[in-house]
# Entry
Amino acid sequence: MKIDKRTIDNICRMSDDKLWGAVRLFASSSGVNLSPRCPSPGEMQKLRRTLSSLTDSDISRATEILKTYKGK
# Structure
């Protein structure tokens, strides 16, 4: 799955449960295991705000970092 600003914006419009599922899916594909329990609404709001502020450059850099750690 290619992650770009448009994808992030679409993900941010999902319900809390679906957003958390998408974050978990992306994280697990990079070797990171997150809790299946959805964080509190306040924490999800913070997550949405953070994701919404990402630029394509931020996303590219994060993807590069995750690829580096995935290889270990």
Summary: The first helix runs from residue 5 to 12. The CA atoms of residues 18 and 24 lie 10 Å apart. The mean pLDDT is 90. The radius of gyration is 12 Å.
